Amino acid sequence: MQLVRYSKREPIIFLWFMLPYTVIINLIAIGSNTFSSFKNFGTSFITSLFYFGVIYSVFGAVAVLIKRRFPNDADLFRRIAIMLPLFYIMNILCVQGLYLLYEKLQWSNLNAKRNMQWWVTGFGCLASTILTFINEAAANWEKWKASVTETTRMQTAYNKSRLLSLQRQINPHFLFNCFNTLSSLINEDGEQAEIFLNEMTKVYRYLLKGDEEQLVNFDEELKFIESYLYLATTRFGNALNIHININNEVKHKKIAPLSLHVIIENIIYSNAFSKAKPLLINIYTDENSVVIENTIQPKQGMNILNFKEAFDSLITKYKMYSAQPVTLEENEMQQRITIPLTEDVEVAL
Hints:
Strand order of the largest sheet: 2-4-5-7-6
CATH architecture of the largest domain: 2-Layer Sandwich
Largest sheet: 5 strands, mixed
CATH topology of the largest domain: Heat Shock Protein 90
Strand content: 5-15%
CATH superfamily of the largest domain: Histidine kinase-like ATPase, C-terminal domain
């Protein structure tokens, strides 16, 4: 069974602290006789070090229990206010146990001085106070380093997502296909060509804005994706079967820009579909999330690495915005992706 530690550096703190602590305690409790011979010093030191090691583990267990009860940074002074009185009482009992141990062993020339027991107790309380603050400092140092590492990782993911957004903005395949469709419509139906061009303008206006904002209104993202899907359905016709069912109550909430675009673009370009076997895409809201479901009809030889990279970036980015993660569930027939909708937050990057 692995011992629970107050901090990762606790074993090092124990070694550096306990060795001089044991020597000083013996010097106060026994006096200079503890240094009268190597045998006396070794016997008293090893015995008391073992004793204090056991006692330290008890103190450590109490400290961990208190930390579990009050784990937050804001609870620092409350933790200390509970720990120190308990440790002082435990020190009194600990010193009495130490004297009983000395008297029981009855070492030659190593008689414990009962008149010094309160000095020993006072030194033990002082040591407990210092050790408590050292362990708290070590634990908070580790938390701060972890926070800096996580912030750096988040910044990297955020910058990477902006780069991926830029790549999507200038996607030549999408632009080429749009112009091909528009060219066909101009010859066949001028009115529909004008509508198509208008929707295409809306899409590229939103794409060019990219990740200028950390979060956008879900309603704004939804209008963009409706324009994007209009372009797709105009091109593919009945081969795409799309259903959108959105609760108006969540339209004011926030979503990371282009989140839906990452998902839907991958669905369209990684699946094979036709009028005989259409691709089904269902977009709906579930409480405070938007869900994208689609049938899986994988296109042969399709490279999905770009999507995985974009999706991983989306997952990482959402850790900055929401306590709820982006989730992906799939089986052989269907894929289901859930993106949380959140309130407006300020993210420092």
